[in-house]
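I have been asked to look over a protein record a colleague put together. Thanks in advance; the entry in question is below.
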Amino acid sequence: MIKKVRVLFTIPNFITAGSGREMMNIIDRLDKNLFEPYICVQQEGGALFEEAIMKQYHIIVHDFMVHNATGMIATIKGAKRLAAGFKKYKFDIWQSFNWSSDYSEALIAKFSGAKYVYVKKNMNWDRAAWKVKSFLSNQIIARNTTMFRVFFAPPYLRTKTHFIPGAVDVTVFQEQRNKTLRVNFHIPEDAFLICCVAQLVRVKDQLTLIKAVAQTDAYLILAGAARDEEYVSELHNLIETFGLKERVKIAGSVNNIAGLLNACDVFVLPTTNIGGHEEGSPVALIEAMAVKLPCIASNVAGNRDLIQTNETGLLFAPNSVEELVACINKYRAEPEYVKKMVENAYELIINEHTLDIEAASFSKVYKKMMRIR
């Protein structure tokens, strides 16, 4: 009988950590005859926590980062102390879905006897901690081609870095057009409706999208959790200034994303690149493409892995109201062009961004780490 590979999946919690669903999707699809998954969180709670219990996954509630340590020596001592709580499990692989640059988790994994692999989701790279964390890692998962090419260019990193983009459950998004949502938001059935699904934070730059909509007769729904009260106030003020209260709706968090997308005519992700911010692997954009919704996105890392202008959608220069307006107008004026775009985009998702493909890619990395053919 072949000994199963014990894989520990770590995430801070299932309450606020947005990558929980993604992590669970991968765990669900692992070959359980080969891998034995464990989940470690630092805080109990959340619907996914209950789901993990229901599915009878092994769950550990334990710190996996050293907190409030001053200096490397204190961090190492703290890591050794925390590693003692994991050694008894004899984990083979430690898979981190913790997006922090904190490298103490990598130390804890090593001191516990596990091989460490982390997923690089965001485009932050200026902290020295990222380099230390990457140096300590046995393997690294890069979420877009820009980080793979730029961040992990040095040979000592390139040889252990794998490009695995985000994915979605395509079957969830195969719905008919949703008429109820328009009724609920008092949007005419024949109105041209744009939506954006993203947290309401400055780097997502919904301000530019509102300014663009003001130059059209389109309606707009902004869906996403409010993470910055000052920024949300700016959004409301801009809507008021342009007299758009009837046409621009701030919906907050939306549970039925598929239903929202199927009620709309275009999806826009206007992420800014000010301050060096870009996208990792934007799941909301993948979801919109899976719905066969025409997509427009700012030309930043992550977005341009998915959108190739005149092939799978339209890109516009970040922060450019004029270019965004031109993209919206092009879609409205050329229905045959739109049909071509959405079919190409859907094919891209089917061929490269399904959950089965993603899980198989992670499994391949684990097999490589354990030298399993």
